[in-house]
Amino acid sequence: MLVSLMARLLSAHKGSVLAIVVLQLVQTTANLLLPTLNAAIIDDGIIGGDTGEILHLGGWMAGIAAVQVTTAIAAGYLGAVVAMELGGQLRGELFAKVQSFSSQEVGVFGAPSLVTRATNDVAQIQNLAVLVFTMLIAAPAIFIGGIALAVHQDVVLSWIVVAVIPILTVIMTVIVRRLIPLYRDGQGLLDRIGRVLREQIIGANVIRGFVRQDHEIRRFDEANKDLTRNNLRSALLVAGMMPMIMLVVNLSSVCVVWFGGHRIDAGEMRLGALTAFIAYILQILIAIMMAMYVFMTAPRAAACAERIREVLDTKPAIADPAAPAGAHAAPARPENEAQPEDAARPGHAARPVSTSHARHTARPANAVEFRNVSFAYPGAEEPVLDGITFTAAPGTTTAIIGATGSGKTTLLNLIPRFLDATGGEISIGGRNVRAMPLEALRGLIAIVPQHSYLFSGTVAENLRLGSPAAADPDLWQVLESAQAADFVRALPLGLDAPVSQGGTNFSGGERQRLCIARALLKDSPVYLFDDSFSALDYGTDVRLRAAIEPLLERATVLIVAERVATIVDAGLILVLEDGRLVAQGTHAELMESSPSYREIAASQLVLEETL
């Protein structure tokens, strides 16, 4: 898994990888030559008393050392650059993949886990790539070259190397095999602690409201202790490795000096050869330690690679239809739709809010039709929606009302294919939504979600999500229509006022009105309002609906509502019960024919009349 992932990522950097390999081989070769030259200086220069030989060989050593340092720095720099690019590429792929997920896939992985995979897991693979470029490429060359040159210096002492290598291999194998499951479990525990932290931060007021701080502290403490225990066990294994390696290295050095001294005393070995042999055996052991360090890091990276591949290999439940060969992308609007006249002018926004004529040019039939539509979550015993059939006509408002859990939001989410219907057919302007590219489909729709969410930035940046080219006068006009202009003007920076993540520096009603303004800025044939007026007081609700009615008079508008007063003038009202469409019609018709609707209306209208 890890090897295949790394190979795929490195395929785009073949030139850089080849350069790193060449540089590492050059610096390794230079490093291996230095002990041999040092041995010659000792034997031929110092012991022989030849100062000229010392200067001559010393000059060569200085030049080779300069080459070794230069190539090592260049290889390290280039390796770091490639590793960082791999990390950036992998994060980009994960982000793009998550963007293609429906809410079902996001729910399977969980938001905290997806964040951890795109940050911590990618960082682990990035760190491994740095080690591979700086250590693992050089280690085999040092190991093989060191053995060859050590044997060249003295064949008899080379048996010490032969005896040491299996011992170090056993140590490495045992530690790595024990680290792999620990690292795999550790990444899962990291997900868990991230999930607990996220829930406790987001739900802080709920925790305080129910006085559950002690329970949550114990819950976090349990997750924290599990992660700490896992990290401690893996850290102890890594920490225990170093003393064992140093013990083997030091014992082997003692053996080399002991037996080498006896061989020099017997005239079977020269002093320079012994110093070179000691240098080579140390280089061999260092190469083994470098490889072991990489192999100890690899299990964590392998566990991370598995988790990343899980995300990348997941096929989104909702995807673009397969286009036939030679086919062009679907238009951003239904066929035969007349574009706003001003949209063709250079430098003009796609929907100039301040020009009313552009909003009222003729539109095609952009009706939203449901034909026997059903939806059920995978593995669910009962469908959330069953047999839904209706037509939301252009120029009218279609309202959806029903008890909590009746499927109102789910119905709305089927139109832009945030969820895919499991039965029946949904069409816009006569085109099946499944046959349209997702970008084109969602380009037809402006949405105000149930949970009013704003992004960190400024008020203007949030509004321009609906139309990036919109000018400030356009922003102020939609703010006026959404009854948000007064509180935005009151902000010290107006449109440039900062917005915190999620819009938490605004009240619920202010966030809701800003989200409505954002949707109004987008020129769309279809508008979806998912319980978008619930945080507004009755007076603001009435003024807002009156202000936006002329803006949307030719659009198809669907509204999920809890208050009957919000939808009393709707052209079509759908009444849902337990996922079934039990009644549809105007307010007057439903008051006569639907007991469910009469019950809802009676309880709300009486209350509102007293306000």
From TrEMBL:
The protein's location, in the record's own words, is:
Cell membrane
Full protein name: ABC transporter ATP-binding protein
* Name of one Pfam family that matches: ABC_tran
Indicate the segments forming the ABC transmembrane type-1 domain, all copies: 18-300
Comp. bias regions, Low complexity: 323-333
Record field: transmembrane: 60-83, 128-150, 156-176, 235-259, 271-295
Which InterPro entries is this protein grouped with?
AAA+_ATPase, ABC1_TM_dom, ABC1_TM_sf, ABC_transporter-like_ATP-bd, ABC_transporter-like_CS, P-loop_NTPase, Type_1_exporter
Q: For the ABC transporter domain, which residue ranges apply?
A: 368-603
Query: Could you give a GO molecular-function term held by this entry?
Result: ATP binding
UniProt key word Mitochondrion: no
SUPFAM superfamilies hit by this protein: ABC transporter transmembrane region, P-loop containing nucleoside triphosphate hydrolases
| Alphabetically ordered keywords of this record | ATP-binding, Membrane, Nucleotide-binding, Transmembrane, Transmembrane helix
Q: Does the keyword RNA-binding apply?
A: no
User: Which PROSITE patterns does the protein's record reference?
Assistant: ABC_TM1F, ABC_TRANSPORTER_1, ABC_TRANSPORTER_2
Region spans: Disordered: 323-362
Topology versus the membrane: Multi-pass membrane protein
At the highest ranks, the source species' classification is: Bacteria, Bacillati, Actinomycetota, Actinomycetes, Micrococcales
Its source organism is Arthrobacter humicola
